[in-house]
Each structure stands twice: as C-alpha cells, then as structure tokens.
Amino acid sequence: MTLTDLTTKDWHARAGKLRYETRHFIDGRYADSADGARFSVVNPGTGKPLCEVSAGGQPEINLAVAAAKKSFASRVWSRKAPRDRAAVLQQFARLIEANAERFALLDTLCMGKPIRDMLTIDIPAAALNFTFFAELIDKIDGAVTATASDAFHYILREPLGVVGSIVPWNYPLLMASWKVGPALAAGNSVILKPAEQSPLSGLLMAELFVEAGGPAGVFNVVNGLGESAGAALALHMDVAKIGFTGSTEIGKQMLIYAGQSNMKRVSLECGGKTPQIFLADTPDLDVAVGYAINGIFGNMGEVCNAGSRLLLDKSIANEFLERFIAKGKTAYTAGDPLDPATNLGPLVTASHRSRVMNYIGKGKSEGAKLEFGGTQPEMAGSFVNPTLFSGVNNRMTIAREEIFGPVASAIVVDGLEEALSIANDTIYGLAAAVWTRDLSVAHKTIRDLEAGVIWVNCFDHGDMTQPFGGYKQSGQGRDKCLESLLSYTQTKSAWIHLG
C-alpha cells in the first residue's frame, strides 16, 4: 500500500465496518470455549471495550494439542513434499498482503499501533517472513559422514512435532509470524497463544493459512490469559517445544514449566535495556541523534531492543543532548492511531501507562534531570509523551529496569572502556549499538559488548538473514534466520552395517 493510499482512506469508517472473529481456531474451524467464558479486549486509543473474546484454558489447549498431534501423526503436513509445503506458505504470504487492511485495523484497534506503522512496517515484514522460510524449506540438508568401509552413516533432520508459540502484544502479527513461520516451514504443527491484549490478528492468520491450502489442525489458535491458556500450553506433555517472546520473568517460568512437564525445548526472546554508545568520533551527530530518537520513541518505546540507554562520550554529550532535545520534543506526537499522520499511539493498556509513569516518577525522585516529557497528554486513551532524562547513572532504576515505554536515559561516559563497562552492567543482553569512525574501535566494541545483536553507525537495521536474540537474561533463542528454522527440527542418526 502506498502512502497515498494510506492517507486517502477514512480509517474510522473502515474500522466501523470491520468484521472479525473472537473464538478460538482449532482443527480448521472456529469454536467457543467449553464453558463459554470470555474476556474483554480494550481499545487503548479510546479506553473503551473493543470486543469480548473466547477465554481458553486447559480444555481448549487439550483440544488444540490433540488436533495438532493428529495432524502431525497423519503426516499430511510434516511429510508434504518440500516444494508443496513451500507453495502453501508462499500463498499464505500473499494472502497476508491481500488482507493488509484487515490486519492493520485489528492490531491498531487492539494495541494502539499507528495505522501507518502497521501498513508500512509490520505487515510487509510478516509477509516477507513467511516467504523467507518458504524459500528455505528445500534448502535444509542432512549429512553423510566419513566412516569405515563396512558402515554407512547418515543424519536426517526432522520436525519436532507439536509446537507451542506464545507471543507478546507489542507486535502481534509480526511476532506471531516470527514464531509460526519457521515452525510450519520445518513441518511441525502449531498452537499459537496470542497475548490477551491483542488476540485478533492471530485468528485471522490461522484462517488464512487454511485458505492458502494448509491442512486443518496444523495451525491452531487458543485465546486466553497467560496464567491459564499459556501455562496449560507450556505444561502440556504432548508439546515438544515452546517458542516464547515476552518478559524475562515469564521467560524464566517457561523454563520451569518445561522441567515440570516433559523437558520440552524452550526458545526465549525476552527483555532488554539496549545501550547506544556515541563516541567522540561519532561520524554525523545529526544522523546519530535521529537514530537515537527513533530507537527509543518508535512503537511508543514498546520494543524489546529499544535503545533506552544513550551512552554519550563527555566530549560530545552537551551538543548531542541539545540536538536531541531540539528534535526529540516534536519528533513524535501523540495522536489518534487511526490517523495516518500519527506516529505515536497509546500504550497498550491503562495499567501499563501507570507502570511507565511510575518509572518516570522514580527517575525524578532518584535525581535524574527531566529534559522534556514525563507527562500524559490531555486526551482519551493510555498515552504517555516522549520523555528524556539526562544526568542518569547506571545505578538508577530507569537505567537498570526495562520500562517498555518512550523513556530515554542519557548517561555521560569518559571514553570507550567506561562505555563498555556501563553497557554490559545489566542483566540483559539483547542488542547494542556503537557510533564511531574508527574501524578498529568498532570491531573491539563488537567483540566486547555482551549482546546478541550489534549495530555500528545505525540502529535497528537488518534483514531476514540476521539472527535476532540475546545474551544473559534476554533469552537464548534466535528468530528470523536459518538458525531459527533449524531450532524447530531435531536430528536422527542412522548407522548401517555393511559387513
């Protein structure tokens, strides 16, 4: 969709006409919960209820796992010819693109993402994800090893079986595609548990998979709360793997559930407190400031790898802050997420807004200087204005804990070694960036930073070949890449005696 198409449509009118499903999608059809239970989804842009969605628990997870297990055992998907499986996923990607307007409205209404971001970022990236993994399906090789002359040994790579995908609310469609795409490409059957705040786009995904030619039971969706549906999925004895994106706290719980059940595999992408290091020889200060602003205020700061810690060399700190303040104050303005001109939507819920405001209060009380923001705009919805603190040290709460909102902390450092020490002084290690003209310094920084993704003289760049995941308590899985696909497979070793 072009920018012209985006700006000429009446998105409120289209939202008013939008029809969508609110039941579970199990074994190729929609179904209510056995007990009829439902929960409310609130539109964070207005603060008003959007819809009631079927609330799943153990019974619905059991049904979905049984359907997935049956479909896997039938081999209707797991042993479908690789090119045929690829054709289904490629058609699936085309259907996502064809239904861009529906997906955009669903995620915007559920979690407040600006409609322009959905149409220009999330939906194209989700479609590309499925295309990428479709193209990998027939590129995965086994191996024949060198053995003695009386033996023949080969290694097969096979799907795991039933996979559970638990995804967050900040990128509902895109994060679901990151988990579901490689799992399906590898030949597994999947149960998706969307975040309770944003369940609607996942349901449409599952429906379109069947429309694309995917067999019933291969892709199922169960709505529900994390403590009921999510826990039941993670504890299920017939689930071979959980792919999870979310908080570090719940990621740890996934590991506990795996040990309490069947020692299922767990892939985790959790929290972050990303440092951006701006050294004295930062190539272009205006460019760097622009990346810094977008890196923390984009998607309302609700990003795992948001560049929330700005580590500024003392020689450029004052000038950097002056430019950040001048540009950052007006770069993102809270507004109606259905307005194509809006680039800052609401936070996902009123309770999350209160959490972010509490962190802003801690920043003030612990001695950081509020340069701008720190307030809520006078409008309906759970909005928080973009916020910058200076005078921050790495012992302050706002420098140590993941805020998951549009709050930047500027920390002055004296050279590279201090910058690296502060950058690594965190329980997280998802991503980091360094800005320098010196190639040797760049490589040293890459080597010494404790993070899974490093950017040099840019921020948040990448493509589908880039493994995305973290060190330390940011998790241990990788999304998007070939490694992600392989993580949804297992190897089988066959030794044949020829004597």
Features:
41% helix; Aldehyde Dehydrogenase, Chain A, domain 1; alpha/beta; 499 residues; seven-stranded mixed beta sheet
Description:
There is one protein chain. It contains 17 helices and 21 strands. With 499 residues, the chain is an alpha/beta fold. The protein has 2 domains: 7-270 and 476-492, Aldehyde Dehydrogenase, Chain A, domain 1; 275-463, Aldehyde Dehydrogenase, Chain A, domain 2 (3-Layer(aba) Sandwich), CATH 3.40.309. The strands form 6 sheets. A 7-stranded mixed sheet has the order 14-15-16-13-12-18-19, with helices on both faces. Helix 3 (58-74) packs parallel to helix 9 (226-235).
Give a brief rundown of this model:
The chain has 499 residues and is an alpha/beta fold. The chain is 41% helix and 20% strand.
Task: Give the C-level CATH assignment of the largest domain.
Answer: Alpha Beta
Mean pLDDT: 97
**Total individual domains:** 2
Rg, nearest Å: 23 Å
Q: What is the second-level CATH architecture of the largest domain?
A: 3-Layer(aba) Sandwich
Spatial strand arrangement across the major sheet: 14-15-16-13-12-18-19
Assembly type of the chains comes to: single chain
Point out poorly predicted stretches. Answer: none
> CATH superfamily of the largest domain, called what?
Aldehyde Dehydrogenase, Chain A, domain 1
The CATH topology of the largest domain comes to: Aldehyde Dehydrogenase, Chain A, domain 1
